[in-house]
Write a structure and sequence with these properties.
The protein is of the alpha/beta class and 219 residues long. The protein has eight helices and eight strands, in the order E-H-E-H-H-H-E-H-E-H-E-E-E-H-E-H. The strands form two sheets. It has a five-stranded parallel sheet. A three-stranded antiparallel sheet has the order 6-5-7. The site of zinc ion has 8 residues, from loops.
Length: 219
């Protein structure tokens, strides 16, 4: 199976897709955030550096991230493919990632971009309601995801609330940041011929199927 770099705008369903792939194909879902959290628990030099840096709310040096990512993708569970999420975030990281791949004998695979119409994303974000008691998630803008009774959880009758950053203004900000970040990456990977666009505005089953056709090279 091909390795994947997963790129998607906010609320496009990236987490859901990664979980589906992980469960079905038993491939790891790698994010640099998770790697750093794991390493912060180690009591060697890097572990202590990462822990200290993160506790100060500062950014871990890119050099350390490259080293940790290299260690991670050398592991056995990555030999049949893996999903990379949240990295690379810029051109320099993309170029360094190429070097890391060469050093460990892995291949780039495909860069999968989950495309969802901006208006659909807006509806998903602004309609999201969460149960304060059991954490169930609903969407008042999406027919088959609405709670049966307004602002009440179907499961436990708890009250539903809206997260403070699930508003239009915060969405516009995150969406613009996404476009600014991904444009150079899409150009870079586009030239390598590895970018594949997948429709994330359909059902999660249909999205998964489209991704499967790519990574299993049925097309
Ligand atoms: Zn509930």
């Amino acid at each position: 199976m091909k390795n994947i770099i997963l790129i998607a705008p906010p609320a496009a369903g990236k987490g859901t897709l990664a979980t589906q792939l992980k469960e079905k194909y038993h491939i790891p879902h790698i994010s640099t955030g998770d790697i750093l959290r794991d390493v912060a628990g180690r009591d060697d030099e890097i572990g202590m550096y990462v822990q200290e840096t993160m506790s100060k709310g500062a950014l871990v040096k890119d050099e350390i991230i490259y080293q940790l990512l290299e260690e991670r993708i050398k592991e056995k569970d990555c030999q049949n493919g893996y999903i990379l999420d949240g990295f690379p975030r810029n051109l320099e990281q993309a170029k360094r990632y190429d070097e890391i791949l060469e050093a460990v004998g892995q291949s780039l695979g495909f860069v999968i971009i989950l495309d969802v119409d901006k208006e659909v994303l807006k509806k998903r974000v602004t309609g999201r309601r969460i149960c304060k008691d059991c954490g169930a998630i609903y969407n008042i803008n999406i027919e088959n995801n609405m709670p049966k009774k307004d602002s009440t959880c179907d499961v436990c009758s708890g009250a539903l609330y809206q997260r403070s950053d699930d508003n239009l203004e915060a969405f516009e900000h995150r969406y613009q940041a996404y476009l600014d970040m991904t444009e150079p990456l899409i150009d870079y990977y586009g030239e390598k011929g590895v970018v594949r666009h997948v429709d994330g505005g359909v059902s999660k089953e249909a999205t998964l199927k489209a991704v499967e056709e790519i990574i299993l090279e049925k097309k």
